[in-house]
Design goal:
It is built from 14 helices and eight strands. The chain is α/β, with parallel strands linked by helices. Strands 3-2-1-4-7-6-8-5 form an eight-stranded mixed β-sheet, sandwiched between helices. The longest helix has 29 residues. It is globular and about 60 Å long.
Length: about 325
């Protein structure tokens, strides 16, 4: 009934054998026989997965990305290749994506799905498990603003999707063509393709545990993501809520939009008070500077992009418009 799939690029090198094996072992609670691996790397990831599948009686299908006319493989080409392989080679009803590195399915993931009969509702096209942090920093940080981590993670899913532990019904993803340039937000494109066609999403609270650091800011990586976020918003109408707000401000009143650049500067002191409580004085001050600088930099980049384009596609109110069913 289910085919499990993973898109990968040198995963074994990035996370090591111990964590990678935990990821694979955690899938054994899912009733599946076939594993689809789309690997665009050059290390031993494919061999490791092949050996693991042989040891657990799983059929393995391995492929590299079909480029779909793009100049290089991306997360979008890999994701689309996995979808196409599933639709053309299997008759199973559900495709399940799991992350290639550090997202371990928590014990009871499948039990929750079975007990709540999540797959029996013909209106459900997507089942997503909450991506819990392995460390407490983000929970503490959000709590200082009166926000529950669970509520934050679910809201983020409805804004931008996620494929770290997600089931997709065959009919819900038939016909999808993820733009191959989307090296980030390819999961958002797939999620919104499903919900905008009227399928429901179900939230599995058991979810996964992410074993990578999630609290501190990698400035270079976040700036690259922000650039891609602006591009995805302006071209495809896929954007997280705070990004939409910034770009709409730029379109409505550019004078006020430019004045909004002062907000991250004025917000530095309260942000520092918050981050120091979570990370301590030295690390907390550095984290506050990085976060506020990133906000300032993003606002500037968004204003420039909107000014050049003069418009942006229709972006829905992602916090409220997604058809979903939270089963708890």
């Amino acid at each position: 009934m289910i085919v499990v799939s993973m898109i990968a690029k040198d995963s074994l090198t990035r996370v090591g054998e111990e964590v990678f094996k935990k990821v694979l072992d955690s899938t054994l609670q899912i009733p599946y026989e076939s594993f689809v691996l789309v690997s665009d790397g050059t290390d031993g990831t494919e061999g490791f997965v092949r050996k693991w599948c042989e040891g657990h009686g799983k059929e393995l299908v391995v492929a590299r990305s079909n480029l779909y006319g793009h100049e290089r493989p991306t997360r979008a080409t890999a994701r689309q290749t996995a979808v196409d392989l599933f639709l053309s080679n299997f008759s199973d009803e559900w495709l399940m994506f799991i992350d290639d590195d550090d997202a371990v399915l928590n014990e009871g993931w499948w039990k929750w799905v079975a007990e709540n009969k999540a797959l029996e509702d013909p209106r459900v096209g997507e089942v997503w498990g909450i991506n819990w942090d392995a460390t407490p920093e983000r929970r503490k940080f959000l709590a200082l603003f009166g926000v529950r981590l669970e509520d934050y993670l679910v809201r983020k899913f409805h804004e931008r999707g996620g494929c770290h532990d997600t089931l997709y019904r065959r009919r819900a993803i038939e016909g999808v063509m993820i733009p191959p340039e989307l090296h980030v937000y390819e999961d958002a494109y797939l999620h919104h393709y499903v919900v905008r066609r009227g399928w429901k999403s179900v939230i599995n609270p058991v979810g996964v545990t992410h074993y990578h650091p999630t609290a501190t800011t990698d400035l270079k990586a976040e700036m690259e993501k922000a650039k891609l976020a602006i591009h995805a918003a302006l071209k495809y109408g896929i954007c997280e809520y705070e990004y939409v707000k910034t770009m709409r401000e730029a379109l409505k009143n550019r004078v006020l939009a430019y004045l909004s650049l002062l907000r991250p500067v004025l917000g530095l002191a309260p942000m520092a008070l918050t981050t120091v409580k979570v990370f301590g004085p030295r690390k907390g001050v550095a984290e506050a500077f990085k976060r506020q600088y990133l906000k300032l930099w993003f606002r500037w980049q968004a204003l420039k992009a909107v000014k050049e384009m003069g418009a942006m596609p229709e972006v829905p109110d992602l916090a409220h418009s997604c058809a979903h069913e939270a089963m708890k």
